[in-house]
Amino acid sequence: MTDPSDWVARSSTAREVCRVRLVCFPQAGGGTFAYRPWMAMLAPDIDVLPVALPGRDHRYNEPPYTDLAQLARAVAEGLRPTLLDREHHVPYAFFGHSLGAVLAYETARILSDAHHPPALLIASGSAPPHRAAATRTHHTLPDDEFLAEVVGLGGVPRAVLDEPELVQVMLPVLRADFTAAETYAHTAGPPLDCPVAVYTGDRDTSVPRAHLTEWDQVTNIRPVRHRSFAGDHFYLDDARRPLLRALRDDLQAVAEAAPAAGR
Questions:
Q1: Looking at the annotation, which residues are catalytic?
Q2: Is residue 193 over pLDDT 50?
Q3: Which string of DSSP letters, residue by residue, matches 217-232?
Q4: Which partner from 44, 83, 235, 255 sits 20 to 30 angstroms from 141, CA to CA?
């Protein structure tokens, strides 16, 4: 069985003083790297926990999952000891970008069914789960065509194709994640009993604007906050400062509401 500590990268100090934990789920092919700068920038009151999925980071020798529902169950089981730590019990929130948003949602459903829901779900750069079923099958393409499509989507710099060793490391993870995304099928169930916020880049054309409003359907809590940032689908770096200000504001509200909620 995987050690619970394998599922997240974490600060050695934030755990003791934080008011809220922010669990961050990566995009397809991504690891913890994109979220590591947040750990220092949001400390100490926010403990940022980037999720380390099989096949990347320190888990590069583990086979990546190709089924999103199975992955969500594994993530929920892996995170449970950290999130429900009785000695340092604080509210937790989920942030997921692109594929990570749907994975965060599915993980939130599992933890909600176990009566330990997140205090907030932040979905970034993604259609809602009932709209997330892919109409393309990139994962079935031959390697060269698959990589060309991924580069065209902007998820991998074109220069990576000139590094064969790097391609060989990235390819299994990318293909597994695209398989998980493109074979995902949402199953109907009760709405979440936690608030939801939706973040997007103002030039992101990957998700129809009308679909973004349908994240409202996944929760019983109103209103759903919608935030837009300067940038395309990969706005997280370009708009880092306003993004982190928004995160701090939204998570501050979570921390302030926690005593009233009995957390």
A1: 98
A2: yes
A3: GGBSSSPPEEEEESSS
A4: 235
